Amino acid sequence: MSARRAHITQSVTVPFGHLILRLVRLDCGSRGWSLRPEGFEGGPPVVNGSLDGPSFDAFVADLETAVASLRQFRDATEVAVQDREGLP
Asked: For residues 60 and 78, what is the distance between their CA atoms, to the nearest angstrom?
């Protein structure tokens, strides 16, 4: 007996740097995400995961942490550039 592959009933793709973030809902009700290189939407994902149950909130928290880290990195590196160039 072979396993039946679930079909995607909803799909949203969002540019994410040089990657594509894809959010999907399957006909079985399960939700998930994947990251793929831009231009390779039909190829296998670089990484993927579930958005069911507590995984959804964990994924959102991970994204919020990533955004905060990016902002801290930007602020720290802008200060370093300003110091190096003698800017106010």
From this structure: 27
Helix (H) / strand (E) containing 66:
helix 54-85
Residue 34 vs residue 40, higher pLDDT:
34
Any residues with CB less than 8 A from the CB of 14 and at least 6 apart, and which? 20, 21, 22, 23
Q: What is the pLDDT of residues 52-64, one digit of tens each?
A: 999 999 999 999 9
> Tokens in use for 30?
């399960």
Rounded to whole angstroms, the Cα distance separating 70 from 8 reads 32
Q: Are 21 and 13 in contact (CB under 8 A)?
A: yes
